[in-house]
């Protein structure tokens, strides 16, 4: 499961996927472990991530550069490389 960022409106149902591998930017993960934003992130939401499988970097989904999760300021985004359109974020 990839999260664009950790505000509650983007991560509120992560508990529904307890066996998922999480794809999250390392800086975002480290920040929420240190300083959860009570107004934006539910305090206990990310405690469950500490023992879960996670990928904390930019990630090439199919190992062919066609679908990647990339860091964008304050978020992570999906980057598609399409043969007929080029790169789309």
Annotate the secondary structure layout:
Blueprint: H1 8-11, E1 22-23, H2 26-34, E2 54-55, E3 59-60, E4 67-72, E5 75-82, E6 86-88
Parallel strand pairs: 1-2
Antiparallel strand pairs: 3-4, 4-5, 5-6
Description:
- With 89 residues, this protein is of the alpha+beta class.
- The protein has one domain (8-88).
- It has helices at 8-11, 26-34, and strands at 22-23, 54-55, 59-60, 67-72, 75-82, 86-88.
- Strand 4 and strand 5 (75-82) form a beta hairpin.
Side by side, the strands of the main sheet go 3-4-5-6
**Helical coverage, percent range:** 10-25%
Which structural class fits the helix and strand makeup?
alpha+beta
Give the uncertain stretches in residue-range form.
none
**Amount of beta strand:** 25-35%
TL;DR of this structure?
This protein has one domain (8-88). The protein is 15% helix and 26% strand. The protein has helices at 8-11, 26-34, and strands at 22-23, 54-55, 59-60, 67-72, 75-82, 86-88.
Which features characterize this protein?
89 residues, alpha+beta, four-stranded antiparallel sheet, two-stranded parallel ribbon, 26% strand, elongated
């Amino acid at each position: 499961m990839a999260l664009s960022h950790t505000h509650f409106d983007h991560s509120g149902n992560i508990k529904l996927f307890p066996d998922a591998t999480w794809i999250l930017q390392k800086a975002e993960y480290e920040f929420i472990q240190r300083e959860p934003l009570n107004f934006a992130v539910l305090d206990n939401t990310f405690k469950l991530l500490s023992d879960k499988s996670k990928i904390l970097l930019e990630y090439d989904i199919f190992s062919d550069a066609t679908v990647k999760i990339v860091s964008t300021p304050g978020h992570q985004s999906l980057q598609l490389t399409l043969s007929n359109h080029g790169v789309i974020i």
